Amino acid sequence: MGVQERIKEIEEEIARTQVNKATEYHLGVLKAKLAKLRRQLTAPKKTGGGGGFETRKSGDATVVMIGLPSVGKSTLLNAVTDAKSEIAHYAFTTLKCIPGIMRYKDAKIQVLDLPGIIEGAKDGKGRGREIISVARSADLLLMLVEASNPRQKEIIESELHGFGIRVNQDPPNVSISKLSKGGVTVHSTRKITKISENEIKAAMSEYRIFNANVVLHEDITIDQFIDVLEGNRAYVPGIYVLTKCDLVPQNRLPEGYIKISAEKGRGVEKLRRAIYEKLNLMHIYTKRKGEKADLEEALVVRRGTTVGDVCEKLHRDLKKNFRYALVWGKGAKYPGQRIGIDHVLQEGDIVQIVKR
Fold first, then answer.
1. Cβ contacts of residue 295 below 8 Å, gap of 6+?
2. Neighbours of 328 (CB within 10 A)
3. What tens digit of pLDDT does each residue of 292-333 get?
4. Which of 9, 64, 91, 94 has its CA 20 to 30 A from that of 315?
C-alpha cells in the first residue's frame, strides 16, 4: 500500500471513530501516524533540478504570494514592486518564481510570485512541494483569493496546513525533556481542556519517546502537540488578499480581507502599508567612533533584533570580532550605554559597534 492509500485509510478510521475516554489513546496513535505519513509525502525531493523555484533572499524581508492559478498574483506583483511579471488571461502563466522589490519607508521588501498551487498539492499533485518549500522560509505570506470564488481560502489554508505551515499562529508553548527512565509524566501550568494525558502518551509512543517530562504552558490540541513532536512546522504571519474586487458587487465581498483590484490600482497602497506593518519592521542607525550618527540611511530590521543580528547584517566578520557596543535611544537606559551582543534594540536606536 502506498503512502497516499495509507493516509486515506487512517483518515477514514479517524472519521468513523467516536471521540471518548476509551478511544483517546487510539486516536492519539492514529493522528501521530498520519502526521508521519504526511511528512513523507510533502518532504522536498532530494534529487532533480529546482525548475526555477530557487530564489536567493534579498532586501530587508521576503514576502511570498500564494494562490490558485489565475488569481492575479502576477498583476499584483507588478503593481506593488518594480517587477515585470508576464500576465495573460489563462492559467499557469507563471511557471517559475518571479521576484520583485517593494520599496516602502526606506525598506526594500522582496516579493515573490510563485506558480499557482492546485487543490490536492499536499497529496502530491502538481509541483506543490517546490512551491511550498519557498513559502516555508518566507517572512510573510500573501494569500490571494479571487473575489468571485471565496472557497479558494479554504483550499489554500488546507494545502498550507498539509505542508506544515501554520499561518498567523505561534508555536505551542510546550516543553519536553527526555529522560533515561521513569516513563512519561505530564504537568501543566494552567487548566487543560483540549488534550488528555492518554493522547499525549499515545502520540509520544508513536515517536518512540517512552521516558520524558512534558510541561504544557497553554491549552493545546493533540494536533498542536504532534506539531511539537514533528519539530518541522513553519509558523509564518499572513495577510488575506481578495483580488479582482471590481468584478463583484461591493455588498457581496466577504470581510476579513484586504480588498484590491490590481489592474485598476484600487487597494494597492493599503496593501503595501499592511505588508510593512505586518512584517514588524523598524529603523535603527549606525555610528562610527568619533563621528556623528548616519541618520540619512537607516538600517531596516525586524522588531526584536539584537546587536548580534545587526553585526551579521553589516558584515559577516563583525560578530566574530565583537567587543561591545554603545547605544543611544529608546533601547538605552542612558545615552551611550555600553551593552552586549544579546541586547535587544528598539525603533530609532543609534548603535556603535566596538571591535576587539
1. 285
2. 18
3. 888 888 899 999 999 999 999 888 889 999 999 999 999 899
4. 64
Q: For residue 324, what are the β-bridge partners?
A: 354
State the residue for C-alpha cell 529608546: 330
User: Cα-flanking dihedrals φ and ψ of residue 351, to 5°?
Assistant: -125, 135
pLDDT digits (tens, 9 = 90+) for 143-164: 999 999 999 999 999 989 988 9
Q: Count up the domains in the chain and report the number.
A: 3
> Which positions ≥6 away from 158 have C-beta within 8 Å?
122
Same domain flag for 327 and 204:
no
Residue 239 has pLDDT above 90, yes or no: yes
Q: Among 278, 313, 336, which residue terminates a domain? A: 278
Contact in structure between 62 and 110 (CB atoms under 8 Å)? yes
**Enclosing domain of residue 322:** 281-355
By three-state DSSP, how is residue 223 classified? helix
Highest mean pLDDT among 5-9, 92-96, 133-137, 348-352: 348-352
d(CA 353, CA 293): 12
Same-domain check for residues 320 and 198: no
pTM of the model: 0.84
